[in-house]
Amino acid sequence: MQVLAHIGKRGRVFLIDLGDIKHFALKVCDQEGFNENEFELGSNTEDSNILKTHGQKTAEGRYLILQEHANLGSLEVLLELFPEVPRDGMARAIVLQLLKGINSLHEQEFVHNGISIEHVLFSREEEQQQQSDEEGQVKAEQVGNKERNVLIKLSGLKFAQKVGQPLIIQTQQ
């Protein structure tokens, strides 16, 4: 594993390379700050609008959580770079994908409880093709320069809480 960069605003998320061409985010949190729901939701979802979790490990009293890397940053970063009001089409796309992610959580009977601009992430899948050089070493190359869809990823699932079944009160008639 190679740490490539520090990417978390609060100092606990790192961009890493596991040696398999794809980059991941490694989130480090203290045991008292860990919420099992974050791992459960991120690892069990098929929803493309929820940040995926690939594994977790405990080391030296801390949880290490391996997550997909949202390679375009957060809504917070986007608003800092482009402070003008986004075009209607862009705002509509962001809200629609965000609502899809929230709906996915609700279908699993969870509420987020902490949605903020730092938890709305942007990601563009990098199309890569593997080629071998003369020595048989595999290397990745970008395929073309075509437009790829940007996905909104909902993160910050440590705030998620399971919703219980509604309480039904029987009244006497």
Short description:
By secondary structure, the chain is an alpha+beta fold.
Describe it.
The structure is a single chain. By secondary structure, this protein is an alpha+beta fold. The chain has one domain (2-162): Transferase(Phosphotransferase), domain 1. It is 21% helix and 32% strand. It has three helices and eleven strands, in the order βββαββααββββββ. The chain has helices at 36-44, 75-81, 88-107; strands at residues 2-6, 13-17, 23-30, 53-59, 62-68, 110-111, 120-124, 128-132, 138-142, 150-154, 161-162. The strands form four sheets. The chain has a five-stranded antiparallel sheet, covered by helices on one side. A two-stranded antiparallel sheet has the order 6-11. It has a two-stranded antiparallel sheet with strand order 7-10. The N and C termini lie far apart (67 Å). Mean pLDDT is 76; it is low at 127-147 and 165-169. InterPro entries: Kinase-like_dom_sf, Prot_kinase_dom, Ser-Thr/Tyr_kinase_cat_dom. This is Protein kinase domain-containing protein. Residues 1-173 form the Protein kinase domain.
Order of helices and strands: EEEHEEHHEEEEEE
Strand content: 25-35%
Look at the helices and sheets and give the structural class.
alpha+beta
Distance between the termini: 67 Å
Largest sheet: 5 strands, antiparallel
- CATH architectural type: Orthogonal Bundle
Radius of gyration over all CA atoms, rounded: 19 Å
- The CATH topology assignment is Transferase(Phosphotransferase), domain 1
Order of strands in the sheet with the most strands?
1-2-3-5-4
What is the highest CATH level, the class?
Mainly Alpha
CATH superfamily: Transferase(Phosphotransferase) domain 1
Please tell me the overall pLDDT: 76
How many structural domains can be distinguished in the coordinates?
A: 1
Q: Which overall shape is indicated by the principal axes computed on the Cα atoms?
A: globular
Tally of individual helices: 3
What is the number of strand segments?
Answer: 11
Low-confidence stretches: 127-147, 165-169
DSSP helix fraction: 10-25%
GO molecular function: ATP binding; protein kinase activity
InterPro entries: Kinase-like_dom_sf, Prot_kinase_dom, Ser-Thr/Tyr_kinase_cat_dom
Protein name: Protein kinase domain-containing protein
